[in-house]
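Suppose you are handed a protein chain with no further information: no name, no annotation, nothing but its sequence. What can you learn? This example shows the usual starting point.
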Amino acid sequence: MAVLSEQILEAAGKRPEGSLLAAKQFLALGKRDAVDQALRRLAARGQLVKITRGRYALPVRSRFGTRPPSPEVVIAQFNQEGGQQLVSSGAAAANALGLTTQMPVQQTYLSRSRSQKRYAFGKQQVTIRPAAAWNFLLADRPAGQAIRALAWLGPDQASEALPQLRTVLPPQEWEALLSVRAELPLWLAELLSEQAQEPLEARG
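A reasonable first move is to predict its three-dimensional structure. Written in structure tokens, the prediction is:
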């Protein structure tokens, strides 16, 4: 078992930071039950970080000590795998675009899945919650972030924030946002249409 654990760690160490590890990736090294047991023991010893059931990652080591991989890196891995599309929450998107200084206390991502999930990164938890399909329009492009940010702000605050957003977004992203308004909730589509008719103030 010790030899198998060392082989798993050696193979995992050749992968990029935040790579998700599962038993099926190491079946060339041993039988499924033995690999599962080795992964659990490595996690119990702190040599791997358990992200969720059956999924692990290597901890990141630095001169400051050992920490779990950053949630952003792991989420990017989930997206690359194509198993589920994840995008930033409306609160995070609004903060990224400068529409609010409020920082989300807990990291949340939106998913097309039907159930809510939680992943552990040491003491930090990341929540994956289901969301309507329009939240994934334009994905994590600035225009896609704008959709989720405006929806999170709600009708009144979104109306106030739109002029600022229009000056923040590059012209091509503003046009992309307008191009999908028919697929958005009615109140948001109407606000965008109203703003599109207003003259754009000169950027400072």
